[in-house]
TrEMBL record:
Residue ranges occupied by any Chromosomal replication initiator protein DnaA ATPAse domain in the UniProt entry: 52-182
PANTHER family, A to Z: ATP-BINDING PROTEIN RV3427C IN INSERTION SEQUENCE-RELATED, CHROMOSOMAL REPLICATION INITIATOR PROTEIN DNAA
Protein name: DnaA/Hda family protein
Entry superkingdom: Bacteria
High-level lineage: Bacteria, Bacillati, Actinomycetota, Actinomycetes, Kitasatosporales
InterPro entries listed in its UniProt record: DnaA_dom, P-loop_NTPase
SUPFAM superfamilies tied to this protein: P-loop containing nucleoside triphosphate hydrolases
Length: 203
């Protein structure tokens, strides 16, 4: 028998997997985003699973810390996926929007576009950085729609950083993705404010 203060064998087993998954995720975080930072309360709430909205849309001007917050929030989100309802380590996929749109092109070499669409429809968390930075084509917008429609109907979360609001994304993503993203991120749009941290670092 185990006392209530002592973890059960199952809890210890889950904690081991959690620590391994967090370490593996941390190893993927780019160097400048490795440092732990204080997250804005709604971002911390999302990372802890305490937000009503399963997706997170981080917006605000250049240099306020959107990408840094997103990496650190995702690290905490991974940690939080190992509660009592644990069902295996979560798969997180990270893409800069420019790289994603390139990879979805019909002439992309490194990964068959079809396989990539299927993969990104299913991953547990899809993290797309700087969504408004990509240059769309009608082909990539179609693929993006396939990804987001499937995620939308299955309530799979997305984490987006972007310097415009979801409502202003139609030019990049197409209107159908804009509409789904607006719905997926309702209650999960967080505006980060402040000075450009890159400038203050250089000053
Ligand atoms: N809360 C923070 N504390 C300290 N440095 C931060 C914080 N948030 C961001 N930074 C740093 O500021 C710079 C810009 O952050 P970044 O997340 O790239 O901005 P954005 O994605 O909004 O353009 C980076 O060097 C980042 O490490
Ligand atoms: Mg950024």
């Amino acid at each position: 028998m185990h006392s209530s203060s002592e973890p059960s064998p199952r809890q210890s087993w889950i904690a081991e997997r959690r620590d391994a998954a967090v370490a593996a995720f941390t190893a993927k975080i780019p160097g400048i985003y490795q440092a732990g930072i204080e997250l804005e309360p709604p971002v911390a709430a999302w990372a802890a699973g305490d937000s009503d909205c399963p997706s997170l849309f981080l917006t605000g001007p250049i240099g306020v810390g959107k990408t840094h917050s997103a990496w650190q929030a995702t690290r905490q989100w991974v940690h939080g996926q190992f509660g009592d309802s644990y069902r295996g380590s979560p798969v997180v996929e990270f893409y800069r929007s420019t790289a994603l749109f390139d990879a979805l092109r019909p002439d992309a070499h490194d990964y068959s576009g079809r396989a990539l669409v299927k993969h990104l429809q299913k991953v547990d968390l899809l993290f797309i950085d700087d969504l408004a930075a990509a240059r769309p084509s009608s082909w990539t917008q179609e693929r993006l729609f396939e990804i987001f429609d499937e995620r939308y109907i299955n309530r799979r979360p997305a984490l987006i950083t972007c310097d415009v609001l979801p409502s202003a994304l139609a030019e990049v993503t197409g209107d159908r993705v804009r509409s789904r993203l607006a719905e997926m991120c309702r209650g999960g749009v967080v505006l980060l404010q402040g000075a450009d941290r890159r400038r203050s670092a250089a000053a």
